[in-house]
Design goal:
Length: about 180
């Protein structure tokens, strides 16, 4: 029982350190976000192309105040970018693979080398540094199994320092959200 408590405390401290490192690496500034900002963000997440006049009306402020707030949210890094979400099936990219990668060593040089390489490959949609059994989790999108085999054999397995690769294929997408759960 005592070991379990010490382990939980260690995990908690590790999580705090990790969050601080992520904030520092991403230069996340402490920006005060009020209820009006949250309303703006909630609306923009589902309709990024809304006009400033319509957004201001929906949020209940003047268009000039709304535009000022949106620009402030952008300049402070709260709004990272605006994107268009495309249906991958229409483009023939119907295979989604979740890949767990374990490195031989978890030293800074090995981590940086791996991260630099995966940033270059357009098939990789998301990459996460993980705790637990694997070091990284990748979400890869390809057209078919031969395309995945080519990605795996010509790219991923060619990287030095990889200890193991485990692939899981998505059978069906049940839920894919892009909007964060903002409570107003």
């Amino acid at each position: 029982m005592q070991f379990s408590c010490k382990k939980s405390i260690f995990i908690y401290i590790f999580a705090i350190i990790l969050i601080n490192l992520i904030e520092k690496e991403n230069n996340i500034s402490k920006f005060d976000i009020d209820a009006t900002d949250l309303k703006i963000l909630k609306k923009l997440q589902v309709k990024a192309r809304i006009s400033n006049i319509d957004l201001a009306a929906d949020v209940g402020i003047s268009p000039s105040a709304c535009l000022r707030r949106v620009r402030e949210l952008e300049s402070n890094g709260v709004i990272n970018k605006y994107v268009t979400i495309i249906n991958p099936l229409i483009l023939g990219l119907g295979v989604t693979v979740m890949i767990s990668v374990t490195l031989e060593q978890q030293v800074e040089k090995a981590l940086e080398s791996f991260e630099k390489a995966v940033r270059e490959w357009p098939e990789i949609m998301e990459t996460y540094l993980m705790t637990g059994d694997s070091d990284y989790l990748l979400r890869v999108v390809v057209s078919d199994l031969p395309a995945y085999e080519k990605f795996l054999m010509e790219r991923l397995t060619k990287l030095p320092g990889i200890s193991s690769i485990k692939s899981s294929f998505a059978l069906k997408e049940i839920l894919h959200r892009t909007a964060l759960p903002i409570k107003v």
